[in-house]
C-alpha cells in the first residue's frame, strides 16, 4: 500500500470507530470510557514503576562497582604497598646519587658555552670596528654555539637516562624476592 492509501484507510477506520461508538447506548459509552481511563492509568503506573525499578537497579550497580573498585584498590595497596615503597626509596637514592654527576656535567659544559659566547661577541666587535658586516652566512659560530649547548644538554640527558635505567634495574625485584613475598 502506498502512503496515501494507508492514510485514507486509517481515516476511514477512525471514522467508522467513532460512528460505532456514537451508535452505542449512553451507558455502554460511559462503560467504555471508564475502561479506557482505567487502562491508561494502569499503563502510566506500570511505566512509572518500571522507571523507578530501572533507576534503583542502576544505583545498585553503581554502588556495587564503587565498592568493588575500592576493595580492589585496598587489596592492591596491601599486597604491593611495601614493594612500591621500596622501589620509590631506591629510585630516590639513585637519583640523589646521580645529582652530583649531573651537576658536574653542567659545570663542565658551562665554561665552554661561556667561552664560545665570548668569542662570538669579540668577533662581532672586531667586525663592527672594521666596518665589516657579520652575517649568518659568513660565520657559523652561533650555530656552533647552539650545537655545543645541544651537545651539553644531550650529555646531561644521557647521564639522567643512564641513572634512570640503573634505578630501574636496582628497583626491579628478582624472582627470588617476588617469591619470598
Order of helices and strands: HHHH
Content-based structural category: mainly alpha
Q: In percent, how helical is the residue content?
A: over 70%
Q: Report the sheet-strand fraction.
A: under 5%
Number of helices: 4
Shape: elongated
Largest sheet: none
Q: Which regions are unreliable across 5 or more consecutive residues at pLDDT < 50?
A: 175-181
Total strands: the figure is 0
Round the Cα radius of gyration to an integer and report it: 42 Å
Mean pLDDT, to the nearest integer, reads: 78
Distance between the termini: 76 Å
Tell me about this structure.
- The chain has 4 helices and no strands.
- The protein is an all-alpha fold and 181 residues long.
- It has a domain of 99 residues.
- The longest helix is centred in the middle third of the chain and has 104 residues.
- The C terminus is likely disordered.
Summary, kept brief:
Residues 150-181 are annotated as: Disordered. This protein has helices at 3-23, 26-129, 141-171, 175-180. The chain is mainly alpha-helical.
Protein topology:
Layout: H1 3-23, H2 26-129, H3 141-171, H4 175-180
